[in-house]
Hints:
Blueprint: E1 7-10, E2 17-21, H1 32-40, E3 44-48, H2 64-77, E4 83-88, H3 90-101, E5 106-112, H4 121-137, H5 140-150, H6 153-158, H7 160-171, H8 175-186, E6 202-207, H9 215-224, E7 229-233, H10 240-243, H11 245-259
Parallel strand pairs: 2-3, 2-4, 4-5, 5-6, 6-7
Antiparallel strand pairs: 1-3
Helix pairs in contact: 1-11, 2-3, 4-8, 5-7
Amino acid sequence: MPIDLSHQVHGPGAGLPVVLLHGFPYDGRMWEGTTKVLADAGCKVIVPDLRGLGQSPLARTATMREMADDIAALLDKLAVRQAVVVGFSMGGYVALQLGNLHRERVAGMVLSNTRAGADLDAAKAARRDLAAKVLKEGMGAVVAAQLPKQLTAATRDANPALVKKVHDWMDSQRPAGAAAAILGMMDRADLRGKLAAWNMPCLAVAGDQDEVIPMDEVMRLAQAFRGSETAIISGAAHLAPVEQAARFNKEVVAWLTRTFPLAKLR
């Protein structure tokens, strides 16, 4: 059953609705730079915290299907019939499930540093182990496993303030919510065979130094959509929308302007 998500809305009420779905182990704060740019461009920007993360309520389970249903319920609450959905990493998994379950609600997708396939057995086992470790030891286990892969070595050396911000976003999550999200990602469905039939535009974004979801996987995701576009963000590891925010935001605004020319963008 859908839960009432903590969320923020920015920009003009009559603008093109754009939903920003954060990755793991983050919340809506990761989109702070993108939110302002899209709102200034004339979009109505909706930024939820997914279930169990940020300020949203904890839930016993947090599957990608449940998270997608939560977003559909949020759109209902905000009286938004259809939106462009921007999903980063786990947020991309949720965006894809939203397209699978509620396709009429999705005008188009920006899928950043994500994939449409399911986990292989080894990845499932690793997630299961991490979820158990988080419940036992706290968020430090996630920070230790994830932080080195989120930003490039060059950024980690040159921008300690950003490293601290990313660390704090991760460390502030509740272990129960994080563990539920890990298990939800572990059990997600393989949607690769369905994408060719979806009649919606897509922009696939990859970081050229992403070791979590390598660039070629993101490019294969783009190929599954008809008429998709791609953007490769140089100097970015997994957390491309934050590490190279200016480039990411520029690509997204340009794609929105090309793809929705009659929408209220400026």
